């Protein structure tokens, strides 16, 4: 049997993007809060299927979500994968909402870095 082409079941509303280096805990806490509210979401650590190309799964998820929550941390601002996810989301018309996850992170610098301003 061919692998599923839809990793989202049921379809997710939110995609959580973060850098594992310093954003994994904040992303996990955010996911748990959203799950308690029964908000359908996609996060790599719980939504990916083993044995399938990880980037293809991200592309498929971004094809179906409405919003991306971008967990802003210093590592996220430096991560080529996070930047690639953000760019792809914008190309697909997914609304991106930054979530500042590190106290003291300069919001203006972070927003400028990702093109929010």
Largest sheet: 4 strands, parallel
The helix/strand order is EHEHHEHHEH
Kindly name the structural category.
alpha/beta
CATH homologous superfamily, by name? Toll/interleukin-1 receptor homology (TIR) domain
CA distance, first residue to last residue? 46 Å
Total discrete domains: 1
Query: How many DSSP helices?
Result: 6
Strand order of the largest sheet: 2-1-3-4
Describe the structure.
This protein is an alpha/beta fold. The chain has one domain (14-113): Toll/interleukin-1 receptor homology (TIR) domain (Rossmann fold, 3-Layer(aba) Sandwich), CATH 3.40.50. The protein contains six helices and four strands, in the order E-H-E-H-H-E-H-H-E-H. It has helices spanning 20-36, 44-47, 54-64, 74-78, 80-91, 107-113, and strands at 14-17, 41-42, 67-72, 95-100. Strands 2-1-3-4 form a four-stranded parallel beta sheet, with helices on both faces. The longest helix is centred in the N-terminal third of the chain and has 17 residues, at 20-36. The protein is globular and about 35 Å long. The model is unreliable at 1-8 (pLDDT under 50).
For this entry, give a set of tags:
Rossmann fold; single chain; 117 residues; 4-stranded parallel beta sheet; disordered N terminus
Offer a quick outline of the entry.
Residues 1-8 have low confidence and may be disordered. The protein has six helices and four strands, in the order βαβααβααβα. It is an alpha/beta fold and 117 residues long.
Task: Detail the topology: elements first, then pairings.
Blueprint lengths: L13 E4 L2 H17 L4 E2 L1 H4 L6 H11 L2 E6 L1 H5 L1 H12 L3 E6 L6 H7 L4
Parallel strand pairs: 1-2, 1-3, 3-4
């Amino acid at each position: 049997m061919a692998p599923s082409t839809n990793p989202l079941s049921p379809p997710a509303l939110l995609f959580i993007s973060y850098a594992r280096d310093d954003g994994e805990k904040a992303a996990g806490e955010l996911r748990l809060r959203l799950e308690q509210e029964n908000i359908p979401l996609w996060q790599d650590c719980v939504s990916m299927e083993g044995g399938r190309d990880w980037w293809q799964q991200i592309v498929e998820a971004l094809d179906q979500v409405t919003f991306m929550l971008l967990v802003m941390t210093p590592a996220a601002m430096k991560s080529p994968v996070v930047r690639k996810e953000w760019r792809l989301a914008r190309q697909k018309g997914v609304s991106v909402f930054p979530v500042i996850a590190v106290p003291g992170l300069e919001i203006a610098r972070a927003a400028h870095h990702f093109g929010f301003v």
